[in-house]
């Protein structure tokens, strides 16, 4: 391979502005031509010419070699990480990543590496609804296009549900917040239930005697599709209540909670850096910002599949639940007392993940069987909508080890057996940058899976009560 490097540049994944226009050509197996483009202070980071490379190990040695490369380059933007043999590893490469590309190139034989996404910025530029793209005017949609057909900024999401949607469905819907983010943004929850909508003195929802089902999106801020598709689910449930028998039954018999934006600060920051994953709280002793909120939960915290380096995307935090966005969910869910199901939506890979993430060991036999049966019911229901296939199984053996996760916490601390962390569309063609045309089909599939999970929870509930 040959490279031409212009010195004195700042990485686009760092925290400073890029001050030079730099182009690096790397010739060889990937045929990569990547570029870092000048960005002024305060402007959105651009990723012109950046590519996503996928490496798929065919042997155990290849998997181990990839794992060593990830350790050697911890600050690079790894979109997926090493797991089992055949599990692809995706990484965004830019003009400053010649050393990483050379390492990947050297794996020829045990691992096959190809370019998955040719130009990241091109996907970003066309990701949103045409009326909401740069230069089109904020929230100016075509006359007949529903709100749920587009990706929206944090303030618009909160305004839409608190002012436009929930007030139209006061019989079954209410809204509250469980606390504020580090930068002061509310974690707003939409509650849908045929039961009572009483509140505690602090304004949070009071249990109404029905089994609860907690759902959250955008814990990883760059996974925009998780929020947009969940908002479609919320509106579909509200609009079809009373006419759709399946939806009506679930709403009448359960207490549904939807946390609209789990990581508000990170999500807002993705308007400046589209691939930002973590929270935005500073770290003592480091210039690097943020913690991975899905490595910060207070169960088997930071034991495996998480980093103690504040600059790493999987940084677990200074202590368990150090991030208030995580701690506030733990407090509300933990105090509720009767949560039958828990889903933390993620992207991408089309997987329906179950406990455990922190160990390869399976949960107790009866719990494991229940979890796999429910995961099968959810993915079967999802597949009937558009034919999209998901695999299901424990986090650690299906994708990769990860400790301090939300689903392990829900099951491990509060015995919420039906706790899941699905990785949604797609298989990597767009990765985290799914175009707006994928929102509705993703929402339709998630609705089918959510309803199947709810029905499973209701159906197996008497057995659980009898065991207690």
Task: Explain how this protein is built.
The chain has a 6-stranded mixed beta sheet with strand order 7-8-10-9-11-15, with helices on both faces. The protein has helices at residues 60-72, 98-105, 120-125, 154-165, 224-240, 245-253, 264-269, 324-336, 365-386, 395-398, 406-414, 439-467, and strands at residues 22-25, 33-36, 51-57, 77-78, 89-93, 111-117, 173-180, 186-193, 212-216, 255-259, 339-344, 346-347, 351-354, 391-394, 418-420, 423-424. The chain is built from 12 helices and 16 strands. 32% of the residues lie in helices and 16% in strands. β7 (173-180) and β8 (186-193) form a beta hairpin. The chain starts with 21 loop residues before the first strand and ends with a helix. With 468 residues, it is of the alpha/beta class. The relative contact order is 0.12. The protein is globular and about 60 Å long. α5 (224-240) crosses α12 (439-467), α6 (245-253) packs across α12 (439-467) and α9 runs antiparallel to α12. The longest helix has 29 residues, at 439-467.
């Amino acid at each position: 391979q040959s490279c031409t490097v212009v010195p004195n540049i700042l990485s686009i994944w760092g925290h400073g502005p890029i001050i030079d226009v730099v182009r690096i050509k790397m010739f060889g197996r990937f045929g990569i031509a990547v570029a870092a483009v000048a960005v002024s202070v305060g402007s959105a980071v651009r990723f012109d010419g950046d590519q996503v490379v996928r490496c798929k190990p065919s042997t155990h040695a290849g998997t181990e070699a990839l794992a060593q490369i990830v350790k050697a380059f911890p600050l690079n933007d790894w979109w997926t990480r090493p797991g089992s043999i055949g599990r692809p590893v995706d990484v965004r490469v830019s003009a400053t990543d010649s050393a990483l590309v050379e390492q990947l190139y050297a794996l020829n034989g045990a691992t096959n590496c190809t370019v998955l996404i040719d130009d990241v910025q091109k996907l970003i530029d066309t990701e949103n609804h045409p009326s909401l793209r740069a230069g089109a005017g904020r929230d100016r949609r075509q006359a007949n296009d529903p709100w749920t057909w587009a990706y929206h900024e944090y303030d618009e999401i909160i305004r839409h549900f608190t002012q436009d949607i929930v007030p139209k469905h006061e019989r079954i819907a209410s809204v509250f917040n469980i606390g504020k983010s580090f930068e002061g943004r509310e974690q707003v929850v939409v509650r849908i239930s045929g039961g009572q909508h009483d509140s505690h003195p602090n304004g949070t929802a009071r249990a109404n005697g029905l089994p609860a089902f907690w759902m959250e999106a955008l814990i990883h801020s760059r996974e925009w599709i998780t929020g947009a598709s969940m908002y479609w689910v919320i509106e579909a449930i509200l609009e079809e209540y009373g006419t759709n028998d399946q939806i009506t039954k679930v709403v009448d018999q359960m207490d549904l909670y939807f946390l609209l934006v789990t990581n508000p600060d990170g999500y807002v920051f993705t308007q400046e850096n589209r691939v930002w994953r973590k929270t935005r709280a500073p770290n003592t002793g480091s210039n690097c910002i943020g913690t991975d909120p899905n490595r910060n939960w207070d169960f088997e915290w930071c034991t495996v599949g998480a980093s103690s380096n504040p600059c790493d995307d999987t940084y677990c935090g200074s202590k368990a639940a150090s991030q208030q966005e995580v701690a506030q969910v733990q407090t509300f869910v933990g105090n509720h007392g009767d949560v039958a199901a828990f889903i933390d939506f993620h992207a991408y890979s089309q997987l329906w993940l179950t406990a455990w993430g922190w160990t390869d060991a399976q949960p107790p036999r009866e719990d494991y069987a229940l979890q796999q049966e429910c995961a099968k019911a959810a993915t079967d229901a999802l597949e009937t909508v558009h034919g999209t296939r998901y695999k299901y199984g424990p986090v650690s053996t299906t994708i990769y080890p990860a400790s301090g996760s939300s689903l392990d916490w829900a099951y491990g601390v509060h015995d919420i057996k039906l706790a899941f962390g699905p990785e949604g569309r797609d298989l990597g063609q767009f990765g985290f940058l799914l175009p707006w045309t994928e929102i509705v089909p993703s929402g339709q599939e998630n609705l089918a899976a959510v309803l199947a999970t709810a029905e499973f929870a209701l159906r197996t509930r008497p057995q659980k009560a009898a065991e207690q």
